[in-house]
Amino acid sequence: MNLNLLINSLKERWLSTLAFTGGLLLYCWTIVAIMPMMFTGIAASEWEKFMSKFPKELLSLLAGGGIDVTQLLTVEGFISLELFSLWWIIIVGGFAISLAMGIVAKDTNEGTMELLMSYPLKRETIIITRFLSSSIILAFLAFFTVYATYLISTFNDIPLTFSGLTIVGLYGWLFFEVILLFTLFLTIILKEGGGATLISFTFFLSSHILNALADLHKTIDKISFLSIFKYYNPVQYLLEKKIDLTHLNIFLVIIISLFTLSVLIYRKRDISTL
Amino acid sequence: MVQKTNNYVIKTEKLTKYYGKAKGIEDLSLFVEQGEVFGFLGPNGSGKTTTIRLLMGLLFPTRGNSFVFGLNTVTESLAIRERVGYLPGDVHLYPHMTGKSLLNYLANFKPHKKPVLMNQLLERLNIDLSKKIKEYSKGNKQKIAIVAALMHDPDLLILDEPTSGLDPVMQREFYNIVKEFKERGKAVFLSSHIMSEIEKNCQRVGIIQKGKLLTIENVEALSQKKVRYADIIFRTQIPLEIFNLDNVKLLEQHNQSLRLSVKGDINLLLRVLANYEIEEMSLTPSSIEDTFFEYYQKEA
Asked: Cβ of A19: how many Cβ atoms within 10 Å?
């Protein structure tokens, strides 16, 4: 790890991180603000009747796997559906992809990697340091979102627990780390950024679709274990308020594997193009 | 088993790099000594930058070995880069940083060495550091890259096309700085495709073409092998057979006017010419460039 590189990497990203922080705050506020309206004057039976008018596939796609429409009338179900299960992952996941570009692909594409590598820095030091700076930013965004949600909901007398939200924050962060490392791995394998972004985005979108449709078709359900969304269930974390060790282990195995492979491959890479 | 060597600042042994099937360099062996400015001359795409990147540990060789300060460029490149100032051929800097913040950022990558020459270099190269990099001209970006490479007072300078984008005044100042490095016993590896730069500033020159090192010569010795052009107008018609000399080639003939190329020693030709009446004669001041192309033609 190189402190000079770490500080510079964080400095480079502070403006965009600030913009995302502001955006997430506004989004949390909006979702928490409309929440009370959902729980006043709507009977569960009316709600179910209303929701039955929509195709199941559409509801599954919008809600993500593991969420029942009736759960929308619970605080945990609503906040998960509207914030944590999909849209949060898309918003911060998109930022994680751009952070992954900044680890090695951007410097390689712009020719500044040669300048950086003319100083006493190992290839693996660059990856590890930049990965660390990206992880700090993603952890900040993940925990900022859940604690902002906690504070706003507390002010509005909405019963969301601190421990439940902290666990959501932890799994959200791990999910962002998977997106970051998967994209980083692709940039190293493909030796460029554009294709890696596209493949990464397509992969996570397909993963969501696979998980969302698993409840509807048996065949899809059989292969739904391949979807990373299968191991991320914010409603469960908010309700049970405890860490799911299976989910945690799967995330950790993926993160450690992708990180190790990325470092091992990059340390043998030439710094240049022909 | 290849032995480490401590005798040379740079030493390569059959250094080879392939990019897939494409050849970068092949079997390149050379050395550079302490206190020497070594010129590395070749056209674009000849393998100069590949060689330099191998020396810096940016590329991994396909086969062969290279050492800088006796250290292996593959396994000990970190220790090498502590002592080397490197100026890339294609300078890319961080566009959103100011000149000052960039140099401070880069200076901190060598925490054990202070950028002792930074202020002196900034003054001599006349750079304003307050602007953002993206606002600088190509020449000013080059100057900042030069300061970045030299500010830690490195023991070896590896310079790839260093004067690219610099105006003539700055080129002269830059070579004065290089000369001072040499006088203080530092070694310089200077790659260029501009022959006059090499001729003026280097002691030895390696000529590379299509990834192969054609020759290494003392610049002085190479000058003695120069190709000169002799333009002669004779008063009378003369037999052309007199020019059947080993180092003389008849290039053009128009009545009594001739253009000859003479490689190396000119005295043999002058002795032949002494037997004939000459109206006018001129010898074009030759450069190492002609010799350079002579090598190319020979290889081709």
From this structure: 11
Task: Give, in order, the Cα–Cα distances in Å from B246 to each of A139, B61, B242, B269, B290.
Answer: 78, 41, 11, 10, 17
Q: Provide block-wise average pLDDT over 10 residues at a time, chain A (274 residues).
A: 94 93 92 77 68 71 62 79 86 94 91 92 95 97 95 88 94 96 94 88 89 79 86 89 92 97 94 60
Chain B residues touching residue A8 (CB < 8 angstroms): 105
Total number of residues shown for chain A: 274
Q: Is A49 on the interface with B (CB under 8 A)?
A: no
Separation between Cα atoms, residue A49 and residue A54, nearest integer Å: 10
| pTM over the 0.90 mark | no
A11, closest residue in chain B (CA to CA): B97
Alpha helices in chain B (DSSP H): 48-55, 77-83, 99-107, 118-125, 138-150, 168-183, 195-201, 219-224, 267-273, 288-299
User: pLDDT by residue (tens digit) across B168-183?
Assistant: 999 999 999 999 999 9
A-B C-beta contacts closer than 8 Å:
66
Q: Is B76 on the interface with A (CB under 8 A)?
A: no
pLDDT score at B294: 64
Query: Are residues B149 and A2, on separate chains, in Cβ contact within 8 Å?
Result: no
CB A145 within 8 A of CB A89: no
Mutate to test the interface with B, among A13, A115, A191 (most CBs of B within 10 A): A115
Q: Which residue has the tokens 């220790």?
A: B79
Q: Minimal CA–CA distance to B159: which of B60, B85, B54? A: B85
Q: How confident is the model at residue B157 (pLDDT cuts 50, 70, 90)?
A: very high
DSSP string, A76-136: HHHHIIIIITTHHHHHHHHHHHHHHIIIIIHHHHHTHHHHHTTSS--HHHHHHHHHHHHHH
Closest partner CB to A274 (pick from B19, B82, B105): B19
